[in-house]
């Protein structure tokens, strides 16, 4: 399913030259566009088809003439706005930055979570550690420090994580509960959003979340008082400890946007312990955004860039999966893929697995 554009040149020489400069000025383009949003200029232009003059934009936003001018001139050449005579007008790309929730979530995530740390990407690639994480604190991975990150960073991190997974939960619930599980193990359940969806969707299911103890504390705060929360249980564990077995006796095991947080070696270790904990009739569901199985090429672009968040900030050794890599890990762990369902939510795939 890999997009055909990756097999041949897409640009003319002039377009390639332009792309090279867009890459060279990428940090400037990003910050200019972010501030066009933050200062309300895109919003202002969206409300008037005939646009506004520089003086009008300066007056309505409270920016100095200079500040408005440098942002507008840069945005004009970026392509997010247009100029007709002396009036600036919102272009299609500017409209998407303003109205496309995906673009907004990605921009906030990159600015608040990744931007400073990506300066250390080179070190991270060479050392195999998330060297950019030190801009926020000294933790081996971002997961140990998640509850201690600055408030705005946490907001953007969870906003990014939840936005993508939440769009997929409706269809995912149908898939999982078509097999009528009574006990479900949610590995890496984070704040309990999936578990909450499960107990509210099915009035009998018992869900146990396996995650780091500090994550379970956050989960209990998030789920306290919610309908069905008495059927959500926690099992604290260091998932990377090869000697830590997983709880047994579950009809279904669920992992959502979880395995991409680990190296292939770690993924095989986790899945091997999953295989050891389940019976022959148990189902294993793995929901991931696989970059080679996307309906739209833009999604593949986004996912391969997100991989560098894992490199610089999260753990230094994981990425968004190509489906072949994930399937190889599954098979090496003693499981087999029964079925893959694509195009769930904003681009997730669910791999339904069982014991070999």
UniProtKB/TrEMBL annotation:
Q: Name one Pfam family in it.
A: Dimerisation2-like_dom
Spell out the InterPro entries in the cross-references: BVU_1015-like_N, COMT-like, COMT_C, SAM-dependent_MTases_sf, WH-like_DNA-bd_sf, WH_DNA-bd_sf
Sorted keywords for this record are: Methyltransferase, S-adenosyl-L-methionine, Transferase
Q: Which GO terms describe its biological process?
A: methylation
Gene3D superfamilies recorded? 1.20.58.1390, Vaccinia Virus protein VP39, Winged helix-like DNA-binding domain superfamily/Winged helix DNA-binding domain
Return one GO MF term.
O-methyltransferase activity
Give the BVU-1015-like N-terminal dimerisation-like domain ranges: 17-88
The keyword Methyltransferase is assigned to this record: yes
Q: State the superkingdom.
A: Bacteria
O-methyltransferase C-terminal domain location is 171-319
Query: Which named protein is this?
Result: Class I SAM-dependent methyltransferase
Q: Which organism is it from?
A: Phocaeicola vulgatus (Bacteroides vulgatus)
